[in-house]
Inverse folding.
């Protein structure tokens, strides 16, 4: 408890120092500007230091918004990949190296992907914002993160195909991206106990 | 708060799009209802349906919008309700738009058979081949997008001009050519009713016609306009009916391509077209990501089909959905852990009733209730199947990550040396080795070749698995484990590991699938318990960061590998039905089990017709040979239906095809001694070389007493002919019988005229031949028979006869005609109504005697409102509805009324 209070004080006092150059990624629903249609919108926010990142994505220096991609048959129980991500994430993926903001921005701008977190509309496998889903996503993030979400690349058929990045939201709201490696986590009875060979 | 989208908006939309269709419940637009018996129903499966239901389940749409509400931070319930309604309207509207564009020639037909000479759209054929008919394939999408764009102009000729740039379409690809008129009616069902009389009866009768007439008086009780948002229509589950009016000859040519096209355009347009914002203005962006094929079925309303029938696993599996649409919670093949297979079910179930509301559509309060119950059972089975696949895939992934098949087998072997060998241990080994034998032993081959075959089936290859897992690597892993376990189990058996004094295996811990296969060999007390395994030396396999235990010991893991393969086999049998691939809407023949019975040759709809004709020839020969002389002989000949004993299985283009092994129809001959003419008693003796021949010499109703030796049962007094049927078999049967009826007494009486020529006996034989022929041909079940009810004619007759239908009108109404004094009047009125858009207020029939004194020539005179003088037409009719001729040139239209005549288009 004492440790937590110190972390909080530290965060509040020194947050501005560390948040330079930070970007924030989020997703939220709203009605479209052009019609009454509901859409999910990806939002990228930049501060003064990171404004060039937003400029590179959408010309605007502080905020970029764009409609989330269609994800073929993601709203249903069909996708085994989505089911894996929402129910067995800890058995299949490991976090790798951190990804720079500019690289993340480039990914967001150029790739076709779907963003998934515990609030995702495509979570047909567990209740909305289920604690176990939150925990599983968060487990892939470094300690100190408050929320995790995945960027899953869509294939030519618009189906989710590759889990590329985990986006970890920090205390201050900044987003830090990390690579992911598909790595089945299972252990047997043999000497080394944990065998992390790729299948 | 969500805003509701009004019916008015959809009306405007239909007008704006130039869609010519009826979305109102107008009785004049309710299409003729085609009622068929079993044989005709089987034949109809080869025809494309003109009346189709879209079965819609809005659950996924509701869940999607529920989360939307949560994410917006508001009460999600109104969003859920609104989205489910909008989902129904979107499926209805998009389907309607596609059907209309196809009917009006603005969208081209996409051929089912790419190799056929009609498939001249070269670009489409090439792309469809490349994409295996998947409309969501990246190569086909831009092409479909171009076609959809070109279909925008309301003028079909302009659309076709634009389409000509996209591909090498010919006039055969468009329906509206040469002035073909086509129409469409669309309604949402509130309740299944006499409007679907084709599902509830096999012949026209008074009760049914009166029910239809009463329903037609208040159609709003049963149907609503297809964009109705009436509160009485359930927001989640709905059945929408589309009825197409089109020339039958043209439809016979294009019908299957039409529905193939509807399915392709639907799956594509749902995701990628600009039509979706029109049909779902609020949710289209979210709905694009919906698994719409999981929430929608297209089902023929009746015996016709939406795809050409075929005898293969995919089609049989899809049609097995019918079992889930049946009332009650009876166990179905979907509940079997090791399914027998759709082909075996087909043969075992054999002939059955049809068009008797066997899916109990009338048993539900509303059509939505029926859809809901059906949908719930499908969803339950779908998730059971998915859970099985997912859990096994997860297990495989964790296991193969740690142990190779060889390592696993080594652990199994070493386990025996590290354990205390007691009764429980021997049981565990017995389970392992029996489960190995049942799943893997190539010699006894319970399942092995079926499991190995899985990797050749496209339906299995299309099953989605978690990352790094596929059906192929699961089957390969299983194969290797089975190979390594084999010597181990064989050694245990040869070393008599299980034959120890005082030890008897307790099979209660066997896996459920293995118990299902050996149910007859196991004591009942051991069938109930679940699988058990030794909790020793474990855990052997753990998964994830939370270290969830997957196997207790190596034996447990090996048994789970066998279970994994058996489960995969089980799922493969019905995956096509329950897990539709995105881009391919399922179209099961829900209301016609004879679709697969006919295509797999289990039922021949022409058998009884052919048999009756052959029997007639045989009876006539009997008459010629024995009918005139005192020889008391009658050679009784019958033809048993061809029987499918089994199917040869062959994988072709990734689909398991069934080729039936047929025991061909054989003549069954019995020698019959007619004792009547000799003894003066109405009795006969029958000797048949096989036991399958029925004793029906006395083919008439009457009092009879029969005895058959092969069956060794004494038939009591009966009033029905052909009552004694010997059990089929190789043994000969000997039957004797006496009967009291016209023929037997006549035959017996002919003993009085024993001489060289016996005219009475000849007459009796001749009469019997003719009688048997007509009785055979009037078989209400197995001789193809169709009735067509014209709702307008039924209502008119119902009104004319004081809110009832007389029995005498059933024949005319069953032939789709109005009912007048007699058949001549009905036929003439139909001719008149087909030609003119005028009511008939009165109808008179005058007999005409021609030069030869023939009297079946009549003149029919009509009174028409607004015309003082009669219209007239000459007609020849003998009294039978199918035997008439209208002299078209004899049509007389009074001169003074001609200028006001309205001709039908």
């Amino acid at each position: 408890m004492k440790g937590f209070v110190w972390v909080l004080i530290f965060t509040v006092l020194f947050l501005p120092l560390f948040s330079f150059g930070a970007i924030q990624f989020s997703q939220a629903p709203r009605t479209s500007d052009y019609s009454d249609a509901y859409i999910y919108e990806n939002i990228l926010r930049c501060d003064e230091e990171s404004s060039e990142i937003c400029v590179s994505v959408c010309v605007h220096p502080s905020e970029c918004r764009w409609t989330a991609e269609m994800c073929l048959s993601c709203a249903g129980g069909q996708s085994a990949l989505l089911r894996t991500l929402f129910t067995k994430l800890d058995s299949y993926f490991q976090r790798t190296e951190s990804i720079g903001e500019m690289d993340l921005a480039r990914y967001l701008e150029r790739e076709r992907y779907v963003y998934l977190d515990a609030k995702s509309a495509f979570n047909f496998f567990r209740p909305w914002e289920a604690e176990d889903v939150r925990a599983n996503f968060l487990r892939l993030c470094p300690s100190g993160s408050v929320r995790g979400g995945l960027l899953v690349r869509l294939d030519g058929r618009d189906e989710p195909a590759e889990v590329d990045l985990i986006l970890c939201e920090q205390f201050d709201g900044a987003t830090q991206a990390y690579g992911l490696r598909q790595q089945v986590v299972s252990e047997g009875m043999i000497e080394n106990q944990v065998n992390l060979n790729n299948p | 708060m969500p805003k509701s989208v009004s019916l008015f908006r959809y009306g405007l939309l239909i007008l704006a799009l130039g869609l010519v269709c009826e979305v109102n419940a107008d009785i004049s637009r309710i299409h003729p209802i085609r009622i068929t018996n079993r044989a005709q129903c089987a034949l109809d499966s080869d025809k494309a349906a003109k009346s189709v239901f879209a079965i819609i389940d809005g659950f996924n749409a509701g869940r999607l919008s529920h989360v939307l509400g949560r994410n917006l931070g508001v009460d999600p319930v109104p969003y859920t309700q609104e989205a489910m309604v909008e989902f129904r309207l979107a499926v209805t509207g998009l389907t309607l738009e596609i059907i209309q564009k196809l009917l009006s020639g603005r969208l081209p037909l996409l051929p089912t058979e790419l190799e056929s000479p009609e498939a001249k759209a070269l670009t489409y054929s090439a792309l469809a081949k490349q994409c295996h008919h998947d409309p969501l394939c990246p190569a086909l999408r831009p092409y479909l997008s171009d076609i959809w764009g070109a279909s925008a102009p309301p003028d079909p000729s302009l659309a076709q001009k634009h389409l000509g740039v996209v591909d090498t379409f010919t006039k055969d690809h468009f329906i509206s050519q040469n002035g073909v008129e086509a129409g469409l009616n669309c309604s949402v069902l509130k309740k299944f009713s006499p409007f679907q009389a084709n599902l509830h009866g096999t012949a026209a009768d008074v009760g049914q016609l009166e029910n239809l007439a009463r329903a037609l008086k208040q159609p709003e009780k049963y149907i609503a306009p297809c964009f109705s948002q009436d509160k009485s229509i359930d927001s989640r589950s709905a059945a929408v009916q589309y009825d197409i009016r089109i020339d039958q000859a043209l439809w016979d040519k294009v019908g299957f391509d039409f529905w193939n096209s509807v399915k392709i355009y639907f799956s594509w347009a749902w995701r990628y077209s600009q039509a979706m914002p029109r049909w779902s203005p609020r949710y289209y962006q979210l709905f694009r990501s919906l698994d719409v094929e999981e929430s929608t079925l297209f089902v023929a309303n009746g015996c016709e089909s939406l795809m050409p029938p075929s005898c293969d696993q995919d089609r049989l599996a899809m049609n097995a959905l019918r079992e889930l649409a049946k009332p009650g919670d009876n166990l179905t093949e979907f509940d079997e852990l090791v399914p027998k297979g759709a082909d075996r079910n087909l043969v075992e179930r054999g002939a059955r009733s049809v068009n008797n509301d066997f899916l109990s559509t009338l048993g539900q309060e509303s059509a939505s209730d029926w859809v809901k119950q059906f949908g719930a059972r499908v969803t339950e089975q779908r998730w059971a199947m998915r859970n099985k696949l997912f859990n096994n895939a997860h297990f495989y992934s964790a296991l193969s990550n740690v142990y190779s098949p060889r390592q696993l087998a080594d652990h199994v072997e070493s386990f025996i040396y590290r354990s205390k060998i007691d009764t429980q241990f021997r049981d565990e080994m017995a389970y392992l080795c029996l489960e190995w034998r049942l799943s893997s032993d190539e010699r006894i081959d319970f399942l092995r070749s079926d499991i190995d075959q899985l990797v050749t089936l496209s339906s299995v290859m299309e099953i989605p698995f978690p990352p790094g897992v596929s059906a192929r690597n699961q089957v390969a892993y299983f194969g290797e484990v089975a190979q390594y376990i084999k010597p181990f189990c064989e050694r245990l058996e040869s070393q008599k590991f299980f034959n120890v004094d005082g030890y008897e295996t307790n099979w209660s811990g066997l896996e459920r699938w293995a118990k299902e296969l050996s149910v007859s060999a196991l004591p009942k007390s051991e069938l109930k318990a679940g699988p058990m395994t030794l909790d020793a030396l474990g855990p052997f396999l753990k998964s994830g960061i939370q270290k969830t235990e997957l196997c207790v010991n190596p034996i447990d893991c090996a048994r789970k590998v066998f279970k994994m393969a058996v489960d995969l086999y089980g799922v493969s049998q019905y995956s096509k039905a329950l897990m539709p691939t995105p881009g391919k809407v399922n179209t099961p023949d829900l209301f016609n089990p004879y679709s697969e019975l006919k295509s797999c040759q289990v039922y021949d709809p022409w058998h009884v017709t052919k048999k009756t004709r052959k029997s007639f020839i045989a009876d006539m020969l009997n008459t010629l040979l024995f009918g005139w002389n005192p020889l008391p002989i009658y050679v009784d000949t019958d033809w048993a239906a061809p029987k499918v004993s089994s199917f040869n299985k062959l994988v072709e283009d990734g689909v398991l095809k069934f080729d039936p092994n047929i025991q061909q129809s054989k003549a069954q001959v019995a020698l019959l001694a007619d004792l009547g003419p000799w003894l003066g008693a109405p009795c006969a003796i029958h000797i048949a070389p096989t036991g399958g021949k029925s004793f029906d010499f006395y083919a008439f109703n009457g009092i009879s007493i029969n005895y058959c030796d092969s069956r060794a049962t004494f038939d009591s007094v009966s009033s029905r002919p052909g009552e004694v049927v010997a059990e089929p078999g190789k043994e000969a049967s000997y039957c004797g019988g006496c009967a009291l009826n016209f023929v037997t007494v006549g035959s017996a009486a002919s003993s009085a005229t024993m001489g060289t020529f016996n005219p009475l006996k000849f007459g009796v034989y001749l009469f019997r031949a003719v009688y048997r022929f007509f009785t055979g041909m009037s078989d209400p079940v197995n001789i193809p028979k169709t009735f067509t009810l014209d709702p307008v004619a039924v209502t008119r007759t119902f009104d004319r006869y004081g809110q009832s239908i007389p029995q005498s009108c059933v024949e005319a109404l069953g032939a789709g005609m109005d009912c007048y004094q007699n058949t001549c009047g009905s036929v003439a009125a139909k001719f008149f109504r087909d030609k003119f858009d005028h009511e008939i207020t009165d109808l008179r029939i005058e007999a005409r005697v021609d030069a030869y004194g023939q009297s079946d020539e009549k003149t029919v005179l009509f009174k028409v409102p607004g015309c003082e003088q009669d219209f007239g037409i000459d007609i020849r009719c003998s009294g039978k509805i199918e035997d008439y001729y209208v002299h078209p040139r004899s049509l007389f239209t009074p001169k003074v009324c001609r200028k006001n005549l309205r001709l039908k288009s």
